[in-house]
Design a protein that fits this description.
This protein is of the alpha/beta class. The protein has three domains: about 80 residues, Arc Repressor Mutant, subunit A (Orthogonal Bundle); about 100 residues, Periplasmic binding protein-like II (D-Maltodextrin-Binding Protein, domain 2), CATH 3.40.190; about 100 residues, Periplasmic binding protein-like II (D-Maltodextrin-Binding Protein, domain 2), CATH 3.40.190.10. It contains ten helices and eleven strands.
């Protein structure tokens, strides 16, 4: 190899590695798919090696492509950090941050609290990905994400955002029409609203299985928003964290004292975490989690833990 690869070619390499198709990479780079193919061919010729295995399903990194990936990501992070510093963003955050969060948490908790941050940083913008699944950080679907399963491999900055509890809730009308619930054994005679079990975004969402018996699931949904509406309409019992429950009285605790505990994790690729715009969003989420314990636990549990 007589010359070093051009950074622009490595950008094409990174995007193709993340999405696995020419069409997907072309959309993210805003170029024709033929341009992506041409740049990859040129990079492989320059390096004298094959970086991708081609198939009808798409592009998959070869062993040499895997070896190049962390070096290209390091260059990307350095380029982003340099650009940020040169435009004077050490004082105020600048640019777009793509934040992946669970659907209900994003809508009910995160979105309202972004207003103050955006007022404080006029040059900052947020793409809020409020999803029924969890953002894929490996393919850079988001710059940072809140999730139940932290990344087990790769170069990420990860912190436990909060421990929270899923409690049993039901509509007052449902409780009035059905057998009183005083113990766990009473729940076997009740209907449940839950996630579609073969579409779980994480095994951590299989909390209803912790009841100790096979629940009678009458309605299963792919996301919690639909579960809340169905349970509020009297379909059955559901489990949810306090932050997800509407404060309009449509859902009330069904069996105080029973819960399933889980943890949210906050993660970002290490190279992106260095960026000022990513860190200010990170700090906002940390302050939100640490300063609002009522989002995660019922008040009675907080009093017992104090």
């Amino acid at each position: 190899m007589n010359t070093l690869p051009e950074w622009t070619d490595l950008r094409f390499f990174l995007e193709l590695a993340r999405v696995g198709t020419l069409s997907g990479a072309s959309r993210r780079l805003d170029v024709e798919h033929t341009t992506v193919a041409r740049r990859i061919d040129r990079l492989e010729a320059q390096l004298g090696t094959t970086l991708f295995d081609r198939s009808r399903e798409g592009y998959e990194l070869t062993e040499m492509g895997q070896a190049l990936l962390p070096h290209a990501e390091t260059m990307e992070g350095a380029a982003l950090a340099a650009a940020e510093q040169l435009v004077g963003t050490e004082v105020a955050a600048h640019g777009v941050v793509r934040l992946g969060v669970p659907e209900v948490f994003g809508v009910r908790v995160v979105a309202p609290r972004l207003v103050g941050l955006l007022q404080e940083h006029p040059e900052l913008a947020i793409d809020l990905l409020a999803l029924p699944s969890f953002a894929n950080l490996a393919n850079r679907e988001a710059d940072m994400g809140v999730m139940l399963d932290p990344p087990a491999t790769g170069r990420y900055v990860v912190t436990r955002l909060a421990s929270f509890r899923f409690y049993l809730y039901a509509a007052p009308g449902y409780l009035a029409r059905h057998t009183p619930i005083q113990t766990l054994a009473d729940l076997e005679r009740h209907d449940f609203v839950d996630y579609v079990q073969d579409r779980l975004a994480s095994r951590e969402l299989s909390y209803i299985n912790e009841l100790g018996f096979k629940p009678r699931r009458r309605l299963c949904c792919s996301g919690m928003t639909a579960q809340i509406e169905a349970a509020a309409a009297g379909m059955g019992l559901m489990m949810a964290p306090p932050y997800a429950v509407p404060d309009d009285g449509r859902l009330v605790p069904a069996l105080p004292g029973f819960y399933a505990e889980r943890s949210f994790w906050l993660a970002a690729p290490a190279d992106l975490y260095r960026l000022r715009r990513v860190r200010v969003v990170w700090e906002l989420l940390r302050e939100l989690a640490d300063g609002n314990r009522g989002l995660w636990w019922h008040d009675t549990d907080l009093e017992q833990a104090a």
